[in-house]
UniProtKB/TrEMBL annotation:
This is Probable purine permease. Keywords: Membrane, Transmembrane, Transmembrane helix, Transport. It comes from Papaver somniferum. It comes from the Eukaryota. Residues 9-22 have a biased composition (Basic and acidic residues). Belongs to the purine permeases (TC 2.A.7.14) family. The chain crosses the membrane at residues 35-60, 72-90, 102-125, 131-156, 163-181, 193-214, 235-253, 273-290, 302-321, 333-348. The keyword Transport applies. One of its GO terms (molecular function) is purine nucleobase transmembrane transporter activity. Residues 1-22 are annotated as: Disordered. InterPro entries: EmrE-like, PUP_plant. One of its GO terms (cellular component) is membrane.
Length: 361
């Protein structure tokens, strides 16, 4: 009798250990998957943030002039997202009934509204880059971190620290420095008034991009369902669809799509290269947006803003190397201030979020 009871206790103990092992294994697997998807999102964001501005500026440098068309390219590559969505659908875990694969209507409605805002921001960005060098507009768009920080404080209740305040201040200083020295990097054929217009419109685009990032985080946070990568992809598809629709309407009214054949024949690098530039824009920009959405999903909008600032620094260097843009001393100082800003943010974030160590007597 004693042996039977001891055997039963031994069996229960082993069963509990096995369940604990499987639970621990699932947690580790989930953590690895999370970090893996975050890494993939960062890689996509890096490729898109560095390559997108270069391709868009290449379009305007060699005869492209259609701003609605160029802004339409930024989001119209969304059909490529159906490839990973299809793979995720057929490989989904059907043993988890509490986790939905499809996004809720409420979340998709938020995506639609954010998509319209994104479309407005894309048009403003295209307008700005038609007058400004890549290195300049990248520094200006870096100011989205300022707007992201402010909106995170108001909307997400993110606490400001001396380090985040310092980051905001020095990034603003970098943008002001560029505005005061506009004559040194103005492209050939661009007037002083056009440069100023592009300058302020680019800052406005940065403000909208900051709003989009924070509102995306809020939408994810307020969703009445568990947020998964597949739901994040569906959210981004709806953002892209409505941003594309907005730019499509603008392009039709402005008759941008009608003149594509004529513009291709007059493109400085040839008609074939013209269409390759357009297609490349569609793919590369979509990588940027899905990367940004993934970073927000697994971290926060503020971290996504900081990573965007980091990626834009590489975009400026790439513009000097590939497009042979003039990198003035003022741009160097503005870039240094930007690097100082997000370094300050990273250090402050690490210092304020790490757990305090308990000292043993």
């Amino acid at each position: 009798m004693v042996d039977a009871e001891s055997n039963e206790e031994f069996t229960k103990e082993n069963s509990n250990k096995e369940e604990g092992y499987h639970e621990s294994s699932n947690i580790r697997s989930s953590s690895v998957m999370r970090w893996g998807l975050l890494l993939i999102s960062c890689i996509c964001g890096f490729i898109g943030t560095v390559g997108g501005p270069l391709l868009l500026r290449l379009y305007f440098m060699h005869g492209g002039s259609r701003r609605w068309l160029s802004s339409w390219l930024d989001m119209s590559g969304f059909p490529i997202l159906f490839i990973p969505l299809t793979i995720l659908y057929f490989r989904r875990d059907r043993t988890l009934p509490n986790i939905d694969f499809f996004a809720s209507r409420k979340l998709l409605l938020c995506a639609a509204l954010i998509g319209i805002a994104q479309g407005i921001g894309n048009f403003m960005y295209s307008y700005g880059i038609s007058f400004l060098p890549v290195s300049t507009i990248c520094l200006l768009v870096t100011t989205q971190l300022v707007f992201t920080s402010f909106l995170s404080f108001i909307w997400v209740k993110h606490k400001f620290t001396p380090y985040s305040i310092n980051a905001v201040v020095v990034i603003i200083m970098g943008s002001v420095l560029l505005g005061l020295t506009r004559s040194s990097d103005r492209p050939t054929g661009v007037t002083n008034s056009q440069y100023l217009l592009g300058f302020f419109i680019s800052v406005g685009a940065a403000a909208i991009f900051g709003f989009v990032m924070v509102s995306t985080q809020v939408a994810f946070k307020k969703a009445n369902q568990a947020m998964t990568y597949s739901i994040g992809l569906q959210f981004q598809v709806f953002v892209a669809v409505f941003a594309t629709l907005f730019c499509t309407v603008g392009g039709i009214i402005n008759q941008d799509f009608k003149g594509m054949h004529k513009e291709a024949s007059q493109f400085g690098l040839g008609a074939k290269t013209y269409y390759w530039v357009l297609i490349s824009n569609m793919v590369v920009w979509q990588l940027m947006f899905i990367g940004r959405a993934g970073i927000i999903l697994y971290t926060s909008s503020l971290f996504a803003g900081v990573m965007t600032a980091v990626f834009l620094a590489f975009s400026q260097i790439a513009a000097v190397i590939t497009l042979h843009e003039n990198f003035t001393g003022e741009k160097g100082m503005a870039l240094a201030l930007t690097l100082w800003g997000f370094t300050s943010y990273f250090y402050g974030s690490h210092r304020y979020t790490r757990k305090p160590k308990v000292e043993t007597p």
